[in-house]
Design a protein that fits this description.
By secondary structure, the chain is mainly α. A 3-stranded antiparallel beta sheet has the order 1-3-2. Strand 2 and strand 3 form a beta hairpin. Helix 3 crosses helix 4.
Length: 142
């Protein structure tokens, strides 16, 4: 286990590396003008329909804020809203084929960029990253 003295340096270095990697990956998208928050909502909907409240909770934003995002995505043709047949007060939000295509192309571009970056690494470096993936997931899921 690392000493307390090493932890702040490790934390700072990991934070900066994760931030830079995230920024580089976010730059790889199918639509340059779309905010990251909109892409995240579409990616969530790709896993299945949600209500506005479920989307707001998942993204840790207020329902009015999520409603603005959903309105913009609906207007662009990336999602639809339909009344819940069991509870007419609720609306079910689903991704459209256009939204699915956008997300898949963005994911393809991000994966291609990362695969290209990983190709420059040695086999030992790639193995170290592969070993770190479960640890990074564990930290991210805290």
């Amino acid at each position: 286990m690392a000493s307390h003295q090493e932890s702040p340096d490790l934390a700072a270095e990991l934070r900066m590396a994760a931030f830079r990697l995230t920024r580089r990956l976010r730059a790889q998208r199918a639509v340059d003008s779309m905010p990251d928050g909109h892409l995240v909502v579409l990616a969530t909907l790709q896993r299945g329909p949600r209500t506005l409240g479920e989307l707001a909770e998942a993204e840790r934003v207020t329902p009015p804020s999520m409603n603005r995002t959903v309105n913009a995505l609906e207007e662009a043709g990336y999602l639809t809203r339909t009344p819940d047949v069991q509870d007419r007060r609720k609306v079910i939000i689903e991704i459209t084929d256009a939204g699915r295509t956008l997300i898949l192309e963005t994911q393809r571009r991000r994966d291609a960029w990362l695969e290209d970056a990983l190709a420059d690494l040695s086999p030992a470096e790639r193995a170290a990253l592969a070993a770190a993936v479960p640890i990074l997931r564990q930290v991210a899921d805290r």
